[in-house]
């Protein structure tokens, strides 16, 4: 672990780092993040990249066009069998995304569907331009304007032999390249020829300046065009793909990397990448498309300008007033001057053995180097002063002007300066009492010693071992303040002693209580990584840097990457040393920027939201509500975590990579969904919208009132219907009773008609006469016939129809009675031709009536 040196001989801190560093300032690779096929990009050949109004990145590759939200790629595929690779991404007023294939087809993305501009096709790839609601492209013969509202042609300019290769719009005019450079006013009324030199291949603008590129047999030349003035801007064997301008610095995309041009100074970065286009977003990030590595995001402009890539793996570092010393695994020590940014090699081990740790003693102007099995003391000019072998050293610290203290695998002890053997020290008694091994005096025989720190004020040596931490004083006293505390690293800030255990817990030594106390940091130990500095303790949580002040973590303005190992503050410059990088951060310009985080609601249960914040969905029993969203975050230094809540309830974290929320069985109501990001313990709401689960129609108030009214009407109609049925039933009953009454009366009348009272009276008188005449036989016969007649009449009166035989029998009996009453004064004979004839009810009455009239005439 590195130790820090100060004017008070404070000891430097050691940290073993496995990554390569070199001081070759020409080969530079800024800290960046790469997104390629391994992360979802269709192809590593990215021809174009652009940022839309919402903040999405759009990229064209050989497979078509994709959208990137900072987390994942979304592909939009045109299904027809035509070439879909292209470039020239642009956006229209309706939010549609346009690009042109290299075969000349114009594609646009609308409602997540790729469409092509039907019936319009350029002869080849010539680029196009969208200005307001007008799209302009070249179809091989004419410059064509298309109305984006109707997708119809509204104007054309005939240019049959122009051989146009590209079109740009700059300062209210069209500029085209072909067999010359031409300027055309916006209404196609005027054409100016600006250059007719041969070999013109393209024209492009960064919205601030206009450039065009020519090709000769030996080089490419780029001219800056100011009105009609042409200024040579670039001449090289490498073709330029794009030029961007930021803070008076040009960023030139080429197939040999990114060229930085500032004040006539040129420097190539990232030469392994073929840059096709770059641009800076509103927050200082450089975003680039490449032809061989997908897309790149470089977090900050200063990471590009003030960046140095170092070649060899460095293992230890020392900070002094204005210099940094770097030790490497190949046994080299470099000196880096912070002020003039120059470096030089101080020492190189002949056998290229790794330097595990080293310190610098300014009083003697010497380095103490820890190798795998040797301790060396060398002069800055590389001369070896002396060495101690076969001790398996681990760490070393300065005790005073006379002694160093070394920890080793087989023990620990003192190492005396050769230049001052006669100088007196308070540690002489311990040194004399220690076992002498070569030039090394063993203080203890404890094994597995790790690190050592010396407090010059309290005159104590702190040693971390495999049995805990021991503290030794100049009087020979040894204490173990925390017997079960195993620290892997010790370091010192001013006179405060700190340690880190194997669980990544930070401790601070309390001199009064003689104990190491843990320092509480309000984050998971797995998320915290400590960064050492020349005058403070920093720690990294994701990409945010905190400083430990008065035992408490305080957020800083620094934003960095996960690989940072050291922070050195010199005046207004922060120097960061990371895995293989050394970069400068300006204290003012590097203050943390609040990058925008945006939530875009894609759809709710398949329904796309409109421009309002209210989304209505119909209620269905047992239906879950699924909210699909996109968390747009291109800030690659962001540590934010996404949360949500519903109806002002409890905040719930959202798992990283999740793009939807699921709310099971929401009842009809209005629900407010809030999205927030949490950074440094603070929640900031970034999106709020309402989901309105509409009440079913059968539960809505108006429907319930109407339904109740309808039920009431039905009830009234039912009652009226029942009353009518009852009335009808009563009427039928009354009519039936009346009919039955009439029938009874008719029956009675019928019986009366057949059983004439006169006939009964005469019959009874006749029976009485036979009785008075004592003619018992006649009375009996008459009575018998009379009873038969009476029975037949009663039986026939109940029948609806009477057969002729029965009727004739009745008449015959009746006539026989009448014949006996008139003492055989007449004879009768009944003849019929059809015995099965049927008489209707009442025919006997007619016969009797007729018989009665005839008898009256006879009398």
Summarize the structure.
With 859 residues, the protein is an alpha+beta fold. An 8-stranded mixed sheet has the order 32-60-59-58-54-55-56-57. It has a 5-stranded antiparallel sheet with strand order 3-33-34-35-36, with no helix packed on it.
Description:
With 859 residues, the chain is α+β, with helices and mostly antiparallel strands. 16% of the residues lie in helices and 45% in strands. It has seven helices and 70 strands. The strands form 17 sheets. It has an eight-stranded mixed β-sheet with strand order 32-60-59-58-54-55-56-57. A hairpin with a 5-residue loop joins strand 19 (181-185) and strand 20. Helix 4 (757-772) packs antiparallel against helix 5 and helix 5 runs antiparallel to helix 6.
């Amino acid at each position: 672990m590195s130790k820090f040196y100060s004017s008070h001989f404070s000891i430097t801190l050691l940290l073993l780092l496995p990554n390569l560093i070199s001081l070759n300032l020409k080969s530079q690779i800024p800290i960046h993040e790469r997104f390629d096929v391994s992360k979802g990009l269709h192809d590593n050949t990215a021809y174009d990249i652009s940022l839309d109004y919402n903040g999405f990145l759009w990229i064209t590759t050989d497979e078509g066009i994709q959208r990137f939200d900072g987390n994942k790629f979304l592909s939009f595929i045109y299904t027809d069998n035509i070439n879909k690779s292209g470039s020239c991404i642009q956006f229209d007023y309706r939010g549609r995304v346009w690009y042109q294939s290299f075969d000349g087809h114009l594609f646009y993305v609308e409602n997540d569907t790729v469409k092509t501009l039907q019936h319009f096709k350029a002869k080849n790839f010539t680029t196009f331009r969208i200005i307001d609601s007008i799209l302009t492209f070249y179809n091989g013969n004419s410059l064509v304007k298309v109305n984006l509202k109707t997708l119809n042609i509204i104007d054309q300019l005939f240019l049959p032999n122009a051989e146009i290769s590209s079109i740009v719009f700059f300062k209210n005019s069209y500029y085209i390249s072909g067999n010359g450079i031409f300027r055309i006013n916006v209404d196609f009324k005027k054409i100016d020829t600006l250059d007719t030199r041969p070999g013109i291949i393209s024209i492009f603008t960064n919205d601030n300046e206009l450039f065009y590129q020519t090709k000769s047999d030996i080089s490419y030349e780029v001219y800056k065009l100011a009105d009609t003035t042409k200024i040579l801007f670039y001449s090289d064997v490498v073709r330029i793909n794009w030029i961007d301008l930021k803070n008076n610095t040009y960023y030139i995309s080429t197939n040999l990397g990114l060229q930085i041009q500032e004040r006539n100074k040129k420097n190539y970065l990232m030469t392994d990448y073929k840059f096709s286009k770059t641009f800076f977003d509103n927050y200082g990030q450089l975003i680039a498309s490449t032809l061989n590595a997908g897309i790149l995001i470089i977090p900050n402009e200063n990471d590009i300008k003030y960046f140095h890539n170092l070649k060899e793996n460095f293992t230890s570092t020392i900070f002094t007033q204005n210099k940094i010393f770097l030790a490497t695994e190949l046994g080299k020590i470099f000196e880096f001057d912070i002020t003039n940014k120059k470096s030089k090699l101080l020492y190189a081990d002949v056998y290229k053995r790794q330097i595990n740790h080293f310190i610098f003693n300014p009083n003697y102007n010497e380095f103490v180097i820890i190798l795998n099995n040797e301790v060396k003391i060398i002069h800055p000019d590389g001369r070896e002063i002396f060495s101690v072998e076969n001790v398996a050293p681990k760490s070393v610290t300065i005790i005073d002007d006379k002694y160093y203290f070394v920890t080793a695998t087989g023990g620990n002890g003192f190492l005396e300066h050769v230049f001052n053997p006669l100088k007196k020290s308070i540690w002489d008694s311990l040194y004399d009492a220690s076992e002498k091994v070569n030039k090394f005096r063993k203080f203890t025989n404890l094994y597995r010693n790790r690190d050592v720190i010396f407090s010059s004020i309290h005159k104590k040596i702190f040693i971390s071992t495999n049995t805990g931490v021991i503290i030794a004083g100049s009087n020979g006293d040894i204490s173990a303040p925390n017997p079960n505390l195993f620290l892997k690293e010790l370091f010192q800030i001013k006179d405060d002693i700190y340690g880190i255990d194997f669980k990544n817990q930070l401790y601070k030594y309390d001199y009064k209580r003689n104990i190491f106390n843990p320092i509480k940091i309000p984050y998971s130990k797995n998320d915290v990584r400590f960064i050492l500095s020349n005058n403070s303790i920093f720690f990294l949580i994701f990409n945010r840097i905190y400083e430990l002040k008065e035992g408490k973590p305080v957020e800083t303005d620094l934003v960095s990457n996960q690989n940072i190992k050291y922070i050195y503050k010199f005046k207004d410059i922060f120097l960061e040393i990371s895995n293989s990088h050394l970069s400068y951060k300006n204290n003012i310009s590097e203050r943390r920027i609040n990058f925008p985080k945006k939530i875009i609601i894609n759809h709710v249960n398949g329904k796309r939201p409109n421009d309002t914040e209210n989304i209505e969905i119909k209620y269905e029993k047992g239906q879950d509500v699924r909210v699909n969203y996109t968390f747009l975050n291109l800030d690659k230094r962001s540590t934010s975590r996404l949360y949500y809540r519903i109806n002002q309830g409890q905040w719930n974290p959202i798992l990283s990579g999740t793009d939807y929320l699921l709310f099971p069985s929401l009842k009809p109501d209005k629900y407010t969904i809030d999205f927030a990001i949490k950074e440094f313990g603070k929640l900031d709401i970034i999106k709020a919208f309402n989901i309105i689960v509409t009440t079913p129609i059968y539960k809505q108030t108006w429907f319930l009132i109407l339904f109740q009214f309808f039920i009431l009407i039905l009830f009234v109609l039912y009652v009226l219907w029942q009353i009518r049925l009852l009335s009808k039933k009563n009427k039928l009953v009354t009519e039936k009773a009346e009919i039955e009454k009439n029938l009874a009366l008719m029956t009675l009348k019928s019986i009366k008609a057949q059983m004439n009272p006169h006939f009964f009276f005469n019959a009874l008188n006749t029976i009485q006469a036979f009785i008075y005449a004592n003619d018992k036989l006649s009375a009996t016969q008459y009575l018998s016939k009379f009873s038969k007649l009476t029975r037949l009449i009663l039986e026939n009166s109940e029948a609806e129809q009477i057969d002729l035989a029965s009727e004739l029998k009745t008449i015959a009996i009746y006539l026989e009675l009448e014949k006996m009453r008139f003492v055989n004064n007449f004879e009768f004979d009944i003849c019929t031709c059809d015995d099965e004839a049927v008489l209707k009810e009442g025919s006997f009455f007619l016969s009797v009536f007729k018989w009665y009239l005839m008898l009256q005439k006879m009398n």
